Amino acid sequence: MDNTNEVKVNGILERKEYITHNLYHTKKSRILLSSLSLIMFGFLFSNAVSGDFFSVVFISLFIASFFSGALYLLTTVGIKIRSSREYKSDPIIQREITYHFTDDGINQYLGRSTTYLEWKEVLSIYEHKEMFQLYISKNKAIVLPKRYFQSSDEVNQFKHIIHQHAHTNKVYITEQ
């Protein structure tokens, strides 16, 4: 690859990667739900348990933590099941897709269809160990597994393009 500001990647998103994307996407909501349930269950059990203050607090928090943790696990399993079913039922997700990132924007090629996005249309960008997520709406993201990139130099070039052209303060990627 030369020194121009462009990166072209392609691949087929795997079911496991789609599930991982959805787990990242819902992580804050699942944590918030579990935290609120911890407080709620703690309050409920503190009224149901009798004894001295420290015993009541300890027992209530122990029981509430159990239920809150169980709720977190149940929602995580639910997200995995829902994501897996969604992936299986959507043939477009299972097709090869090509992305061409340049100074001007993002071209997405899927079969005979081409979509162009300007950098200003990207709302937020996240980097995780195994993928990048480029959100173009609150619930819609371009999911780029790092395996789509042919080398670490290509990943660094992609990060460079993002740092130069992303029009959002919500860029959460590691430095090059």
UniProtKB/TrEMBL annotation:
Transmembrane segments annotated in the record for this chain: 31-50, 56-79
UniProt keywords, alphabetically: Membrane, Transmembrane, Transmembrane helix
Residue ranges of every copy of the YcxB-like C-terminal domain listed in the record: 101-162
InterPro entries referenced in this protein's UniProt entry, alphabetically: YcxB-like_C
Tagged with keyword Membrane: yes
Protein name from the UniProt record: YcxB-like C-terminal domain-containing protein
UniProt source species: Pontibacillus yanchengensis Y32
